[in-house]
Amino acid sequence: MHEWALAEAVVSTALEESKKEGLKEITKIKLKIGELQQIDIDTFKFVLNEVIQPQNPMIKKAKIELETERGILKCRVCEHKWAFKEMLKKLDEEESESIHFIPEMSHIYMRCPKCKSPDFEIVQGRGVWIDSIEGEK
Ligand SMILES: [Zn+2]
Q1: Could you tell me the pLDDT band of residue 110, with boundaries at 50, 70 and 90?
Q2: Same domain for 114 and 48
Q3: Do 7 and 63 belong together in one domain?
Q4: Residue 84 C-alpha to ligand 1 middle, in angstroms?
């Protein structure tokens, strides 16, 4: 149900923004989704395209583009930064599966590649946001 709430939030934000811009119709919405966001992309797309869009004349014909923002992690001890994807390659299948579903689990399996500390933070790659809106006035 998480995907429904997100899709609704995205659409209501897009509608508010387009009102401010004085748009009559939205033609394109570009969304960014963090790699570490726990979201089922297929469900999210389905809700947007099949449920919310047809109900709303202003957004009915809009093309929705989804782009993934890569996850970046940063060590709190030595400040080294690394990409989430690179790290995933080094894990076995079961480990990377659990991280995919629960990003917090990454602290159990992941270590800073430089100093081996498990104390790191996510600096990029969470959340869903609108990158741009295009439309007709
Ligand atoms: Zn480190």
Answers
A1: confident
A2: no
A3: yes
A4: 14
